[in-house]
Amino acid sequence: MYGLKREIDLTFLQGRELIQVAIGMYQVIFNFDGDVSISIEGQFEHTSKVNSSEWRPGNPAMAVTTVNLLSAKVEAVHGQEDGTLKLTFSNGDRLVIRDASTEYESYQISRRGETIIV
C-alpha cells in the first residue's frame, strides 16, 4: 500500500537475532532482539535450503516453517520502492515480505521510537 521510500535506512535490522515467531490466523509477528519486530498481515515467502512456502492471511499452517529461523541473525536487508522487503538470515534462509494490498497495510517494522508502515 505505502511502499518503501528510496532513502529509507533499514540497516538497523542487520545483525538482529530472531527470538520469537508468533503465528496467528491473520498475522505473523517476528520479534528480534534489540526491541525490533516485523508484523505481517499481507503475505511473505520463506525459502530454505530444502523448500519454499508462501504465507497469506487465513492459512497459519504455512507459517510453521519460519520457526526454523529462530536464533538466526539477519545478515542482509534489501528494501524496494514497491514495498518488497528481503531478509537473508545467517542459516541461509530468506524471507521475502511483499506489499500485497492496495487497500490495507501489509506489514509494519517497529523499533524503539519508530514504526514503518507498509
Oligomer: single chain
Mean pLDDT: 96
Q: What structural category do the secondary elements indicate?
A: mainly beta
Largest sheet: 5 strands, antiparallel
Fraction of residues in H or I helices: under 10%
Distance between the termini: 6 Å
Gyration radius, in Å? 13 Å
The total number of structural domains is 1
Structure summary, number of beta strands? 10
In words, what does this structure look like?
With 118 residues, the chain is mainly β. The chain has one domain: Alpha-Beta Barrel (N-terminal domain of MutM-like DNA repair proteins). 0% of the residues lie in helices and 42% in strands. The strands form 2 sheets. Strands 1-2-3-9-10 form a 5-stranded antiparallel sheet, with no helix packed on it. A 5-stranded antiparallel sheet has the order 5-4-8-7-6, with no helix packed on it.
Keywords:
mainly beta; N-terminal domain of MutM-like DNA repair proteins; 0% helix; 42% strand; five-stranded antiparallel beta sheet; 118 residues
Describe how the helices and strands are arranged.
Blueprint: E1 18-23, E2 28-32, E3 36-40, E4 43-47, E5 52-55, E6 74-79, E7 85-89, E8 94-98, E9 107-111, E10 114-117
Antiparallel strand pairs: 1-2, 2-3, 3-9, 4-5, 4-8, 6-7, 7-8, 9-10
